[in-house]
Design brief:
This protein is mainly alpha-helical and about 190 residues long. Helix content is about 80%, strand content about 0%. The protein has 6 helices and no strands. Helix 1 packs parallel to helix 2. It starts with a helix and ends with a helix.
């Protein structure tokens, strides 16, 4: 073989090799590009998750601070209400108890709270009980012949009691407080004996 044929064959091989090589790189490029795109997408996704986690941690910390502040406010309100209740109890102890009519209602401001309302209701019940006892004592002392018995004055109450109704049901139906109902029934037992 002559040297020029060898050179032509080598040249053709080099041209073919040069032509094939770029195609290999081009064929590998989309796969490599896809991997790079996936990596960048995952990095972006991880960054977003990290930012969301940071925001979530910050929000939880804010909520914890708000809950702590609300708890402190509630504790202060509870202490204030306890002080008010103590003051009401002290004033109740210091003031003489006056008799209250059977239907005596003491107006209670809603801002006094549930404890103060319960205290006022107990004071009302005690005052009503004392009023009923005072009525009973005066009726026993005076003993007027024309005076009605306690069963005559509270006939509806005794009818409901005879039917087997509970104290609460009697209280609701007659409009008399539960403590008064109980006291009237006790006084009737004393009157009978």
């Amino acid at each position: 073989m002559s040297p020029w044929i060898i050179i032509v064959i080598l040249g053709a091989c080099a041209i073919a090799y040069a032509y094939i090589m770029p195609r290999k790189n081009k064929a590998q490029e989309p796969g490599h590009q896809l991997v790079q795109e996936m990596e960048s997408t995952l990095e972006h996704y991880m960054t977003e998750i990290e930012n969301d986690n940071d925001a979530l941690i910050q929000r939880v910390a804010e909520m914890k601070g708000e809950a702590t502040a609300a708890d402190q406010r509630m504790q202060l309100q509870l202490q204030e209400l306890q002080q008010r209740l103590d003051q009401l109890e002290q004033s109740k102890k210091n003031e003489p108890v006056a008799t209250v009519p059977h239907s005596g209602n003491v107006s209670v401001q809603s801002s006094e709270g549930l404890q103060a309302q319960a205290l006022v209701k107990s004071v009302q019940a005690e005052a009503a009980q004392q009023a009923l006892e005072a009525d009973l004592q005066t009726s026993e002392v005076e003993s007027l012949p024309g005076r009605d018995s306690i069963k005559d004055r509270y006939a509806e109450l005794f009818n409901l009691h005879a039917e087997g109704k509970s104290m609460d049901a009697i209280s609701k139906q007659t409009g008399i407080q539960r403590g008064e109902v109980q006291l009237i029934l006790q006084l009737a037992e004393r009157e009978e004996s």
